[in-house]
Write a structure and sequence with these properties.
The protein has 269 residues and is of the alpha+beta class. The protein has 2 domains: 125 residues, no CATH class; 131 residues, no CATH class. Helices cover 30% and strands 24% of the residues. The strands form 4 sheets. Strands 10-7-6-5-13 form a 5-stranded mixed β-sheet. A 3-stranded antiparallel β-sheet has the order 2-1-3. Strand 6 and strand 7 form a beta hairpin. Helix 3 packs across helix 4.
Length: 269
């Protein structure tokens, strides 16, 4: 029995990729038709349909929701559609894109796997996704220890001009009035202006797993020390969060309380 597959040239060109499985019976936007997002290489995107076909009419694992849906699609005379969301990635980029896409797709992604190019979204879907607050708990990376910092004093051009990205990063990573103990725990730094996310960086780690930062001791008595972090860009995560209010339940944590330059939020359970 032959199965669809990519040629060697295509597999080489794709490298590591993120893919989506779509239900062709649904006549609506792509986002609503996606029922699974995964990452892989070679012919990984075809494996789920192949496994269902090889099972013939035999029983399927109850936990394999996607295989049961594939069987249902075939029973209606259709074949699952495969979409290569983004290719030419390394493993870390693919995992990051996959983990960000899954919560954004919401209930459309029936099975969770482990923002990059969301160009498949129609205008109304773009508005639905980005004209609404973002719940911290829905983004795996943001469930970790985060430091939200106020960039309200930064001019608009620093925030919006890509040519000034280095300046924006310097302003985001420090110096911040946060304790030594909490500084050691920070995983992500999120810059906000007027309650909206403007920048995000993942804090680099020391060999012991603690955050990498420079401690700047206070020059005046009774003043607190400050921390300046070493951090790396996370462009896919930033694409999803930029310009949105970050919520933690009923609280808008991207709105720094008056008088505070930053606020530390511990990891969620």
């Amino acid at each position: 029995m032959s199965h669809p597959q990519f040629s060697e040239m295509v597999k080489t060109a794709l490298g590591v990729y993120v893919y989506a499985l779509l239900d062709p019976r649904m006549k609506m936007a792509i986002r609503e038709r996606v029922f699974y997002v995964g990452k892989g290489t070679g012919n990984r995107a075809f494996n789920h349909a192949r496994l269902e076909k090889e099972a013939k009419d035999g029983p399927l694992d109850p936990s394999e929701h996607k295989l049961r849906l594939i069987r249902e699609i075939r029973g209606d005379g259709f074949e699952v559609e495969i979409l290569i969301v983004k290719h030419g990635l390394d493993d870390d980029q693919a995992l990051q894109l996959e983990s960000v896409l899954i919560p954004i797709l919401g209930s459309a992604n029936k099975v969770a796997g482990h923002k990059g190019d969301l160009t498949w979204l129609e205008e109304n879907r773009v508005r639905e996704l980005y004209d609404s607050p973002l719940e911290r708990g829905e983004i795996p990376q943001l469930r970790r220890n985060i430091l939200v910092v106020s960039l309200n004093q930064q001019p608009t051009d620093v925030i919006e001009d890509p040519a000034k990205a280095k300046i924006l990063k310097l302003q985001t990573v420090g110096d911040w009035n946060v304790s030594q103990k909490n500084s050691e725990r920070v995983d992500f730094i999120i810059g906000v202006k007027n309650g909206l996310v403007t920048s995000i960086y993942e804090v680099d780690k020391c060999d012991d797993g603690s955050a990498k930062f420079e401690r700047i001791e206070a020059q005046k008595k009774r003043a607190h020390g400050r921390s300046r972090f070493s951090a790396s860009d996370v462009p896919l995560l930033l694409d999803v969060c930029r310009g949105r209010t970050l919520m933690d339940g009923p609280s808008a944590i991207s709105k720094i309380r008056p008088g505070a330059g930053c606020q530390f939020f511990p990891a969620m359970d």
